[in-house]
Amino acid sequence: MENEELLEQIMKVHGDSHERYGYPRVHQALRQQGVACGRNRVARLMRENGIVARMARRFRRHSHRHELFRGTPNLLLDRSPTTAPGQVWVGDITYIRVGGQWSYLSTVMDRHTRQIIGWAFAEKTSAALVREALLMACHHQAVTSETIFHSDQGCEYASKEYRRVLEDLGFRISMSRKGHCWDNASWNPSSIP
User: Fold this and answer.
1) Which long-range contacts (CB under 8 A, 24 or more apart) does 5-8 make?
2) Which residues, in sequence order, are bridge partners of residue 101?
3) Where do the H-state alpha helices sit in the chain?
4) Tens of pLDDT, residues 7-19
5) Given 3.40.50.300, 3.30.420.10, 2.40.50.140, 1.10.1660.10, which CATH number is that of 63-191?
6) Domain spans of the chain?
7) 117 near 140, Cβ under 8 Å?
8) DSSP letters for 154-172
9) Are strands 115-122 and 101-110 parallel, antiparallel or unpaired?
């Protein structure tokens, strides 16, 4: 196939993609259409003719979410170790590969006993997943007006739906600071030998 003919095909594929395809995807689309061409040749023709992929919009920070994090203190900083069960609960999510697919396990742990008092398992992570684990924990252990629920800044824990449940149940809400691994909910200074 001549360069001019291939260039026409490239321009059509590029246009059909709303100019979002770069040379790898243009090449792949051409191959799927049965056009015999090399990847380097497609890249060269696109470069020589100024055909480039339009860049995706840059991610915008959502200021309301950052305000939420700023307004949620880390109540575990400068706090003495727990002295009894029910004072501090911590939540976390981990992912587990099951049958070739990722699934998610949400847990609630009593920081004093280090026992898992609530858990939920699902194929997708969501506010509903962490809510289910929290409600199971509430069936196993009483919540007082002084009980702290601590988590990281994951979107599931920051969701309005989940925070409303915590407030309705009477928890004091605590979150780790961004980028501070020692704020992790499972770390307990009293457990260090």
Assistant:
1) 6/35, 6/37, 6/41, 6/42, 6/45, 7/45, 7/49
2) 98
3) 3-16, 23-32, 39-48, 63-70, 127-140, 155-158, 160-169
4) 889 989 988 888 8
5) 3.30.420.10
6) 3-48, 63-191
7) yes
8) -HHHHSHHHHHHHHHHTPE
9) antiparallel
User: How do residues 79-112 score in pLDDT, each as one tens digit?
Assistant: 888 899 999 999 999 989 888 888 999 999 999 9
d(CA 33, CA 44): 20
Tell me, yes or no, if the pTM score tops 0.90: no
Contact 125, 153 (CB under 8 A): no
Q: Are 108 and 119 in contact (CB under 8 A)?
A: yes
CB 147 within 8 A of CB 87: yes
Q: Which residues pair with 88 in a beta bridge?
A: 148
Q: Is the pLDDT of residue 185 over 50?
A: no
* Number of CB atoms found within 10 A of residue 138's CB: 17
Residue entry with tokens 């979150």: 175
Phi then psi for residue 63, to 5 deg, are: -60, -30
C-alpha distance from residue 3 to each of 20, 21, 117 (Å): 22, 19, 67
Contacts of 69 (CB under 8 A, 6+ apart): 153, 158, 175, 178
Residue type, 36: A
Smallest Cα–Cα separation from 21: which of 43, 44, 48?
43
